[in-house]
Amino acid sequence: MTTxxxxxxxxxxxxxxxxxxxxxxxxxxxxxxxxxYASAVILPKTYRNKWLNxxxxxxxxxxxxxRPEIESTALSWAVGVVTHTEIDEINIxxxxxxxxxxxxxxxxxxxxxxxxxxxxxxxxxxxKHTCIIKGDGKYLSIAAASIxxxxxxxxxxxxxxxxxxxxxxxxxxxxxxxxxxxxIRDFGVTVxxxxxxxxxxxxxxxxx
Length: 208
Hints:
This protein has helices spanning about 60-75, 85-90, 90-105, 140-165, 170, 180-185; strands spanning about 20-25, 35-40, 75-80, 115, 130.
């Protein structure tokens, strides 16, 4: 495997050697369209992988190459989804936490510690958590969760792009690129757009 950015050091295998840890991360928080995805991954304490890193530091091909490796190696893994309509109802921060909760709900192995990427989290009932800023670049389990969340969300956006080809979602994945915003200006919004987000710059009006 080759990467666009080489890892300077291998990520840590665990935060607490005695805990059953699930790394948690989300993808799609800053997008204008589509759901937010999150993943929870429990890896063996002995697992090592020099290529596993924050999904943003990997190429698309590398992420998809690592996904089956993560899924086959993990003691348990799951993906949670919160729709764009739910995002509009509860806001994107709460939606990100809810997506993580939904992923944790599905784990076949119950963790007793959650490693959360970022600096905030809504506590999951009866499971301790610790928030780690840029955790997806520090711990293997969080990096693995970032890759699963990112690739499964990308799969959704690529499928949605087939029905809405004007927006270039197969390339921008719903993020607010110049071309995505121009398409919103030209063609309006779709059923996948988050209506509570600033879809166009404030000086431009959008007829919803």
